[in-house]
Amino acid sequence: DLKGRFLVINSMINKTAFAALKEDMNSYDAKREQVIKGSRDVLKQSKRAIFALHRGEVESAQALLKESATQLCVLFGQAQGKLRYGGALGEACEEYTEAELYLAFKTKKEFPTIKDLGVLSEEYVAGLCDLAGELQRTGVHAALEKNYELVERCRQGVASLYGQLMELDFRNGSLRRKFDSVKYSVDKLEDLSLQVQLRQ
After folding, report:
1. C-alpha radius of gyration, the chain, whole number
2. C-alpha to C-alpha distance for 126 and 179, rounded to whole angstroms
3. Contacts of 9 (CB under 8 A, 6+ apart)
4. Do residues 88 and 36 make contact, with C-beta atoms less than 8 angstroms apart?
5. Which distant-in-sequence residues (6+ apart) come within 8 Å of 187 by Cβ?
6. What's the average model confidence in pLDDT over 126-138?
7. Residue 15, SS3 per DSSP
8. pLDDT more than 70, % of the chain
9. Cβ atoms of residues 182 and 158 within 8 Å
10. Cα torsion angle, 114, 181, 140, 43, sign
């Protein structure tokens, strides 16, 4: 009968192995929650750093990014296996990369490398693509402030960035869409630069 079938299946399950399975799943869920929470903190701090840079508060941005770097080291230790790829941690790494690159642009220093930041290749490229948007915003603000030298620097920066990214083979997906948005920033800054030249 049906009851007898359940008893047979129940006797086939290794209770010790099943308990270990349950413990492993609970441990994974706990780590996942820790990584998600920590990743959100890094994401917020990186965004705050970018906003600080737009306001010219370089030291504040540097402090925020230093704290983010420390938190990421902890998260990398917690995120084993599939927890390391994509998801909340991937988004945090992309935002952190974008902020570090923008800091380098604002302070006129060489861009940090993938090795410097400890992120994955796709996270780094995503950060590069997102940087174009920040440079576009910077260029627009510079034009309003009549800082035409900065407008041109932003235009050249995005154009150079686009030229480098074109050498990569982008498959369809979120990274491809980010790359396509870089071309939009190139067009916007070229148009802005032309308007500036006409004013002068």
Report:
1. 23
2. 8
3. none
4. yes
5. none
6. 97
7. helix
8. 88
9. yes
10. negative
- pLDDT for res 1: 54
Q: What is the average pLDDT value for the chain, to the nearest integer?
A: 89
| Exposure string over 90-104, b if 16+ CB within 10 A, otherwise e | bbbbbbbbbbbbbbe
The confidence score (pLDDT) of residue 198 equals: 80
Q: Which residue has the tokens 């308007």?
A: 195
One-letter amino acid of 141: H
DSSP letter for each residue of 29-83: HHHHHHHHHHHHHHHHHHHHHHHHHHTT-HHHHHHHHHHHHHHHHHHHHH--GGG
Overall size of the chain counted in residues: 200
Interior angle at CA 102, CA 35 and CA 45, nearest 5: 35
Instruction: Measure the CA–CA gap between 83 and 89, rounded to whole angstroms.
Output: 8
**137 and 50 in contact (C-beta within 8 Å)?**
no
Tokens linked to 31? 């780590």
DSSP strand E in 1-66: where? none
